[in-house]
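Data's thin. Show one?
=====
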Amino acid sequence: MAGLALKVDDKNWEAEVINAPELVMVDFWAVWCGPCQMVAPIVDELAQEYAGRVRVRKLNTDENPEIAGRYQIMSIPTILFFKNGQLAERLVGARPKRQFKDVIDSLLAKPSATT
């Protein structure tokens, strides 16, 4: 289904997240995680609402422990936001949709850094 959050893993992390031209939201989750299951429909809704402006991805921490370790994911769900290949924001735990939207809107409003 178009617009829903797509899977990201060790193989495509660089291309899908670090080298992405747009803002990227990554949901770190696991199958056994109850709060992750609660957040999943919100993540998919955001993927549809922000299609073309925000790249929304999901990373299974059990299948990709190296990336989870690199970003010090200690509890899930953790949502990381990347802008220009850099970690821009971190939300830990299940949150209401409004909080995700506030972070996305704030990051989209900030001009991209030119270094």
Summary: The first strand starts at residue 6 and ends at 7. The mean pLDDT is 93.
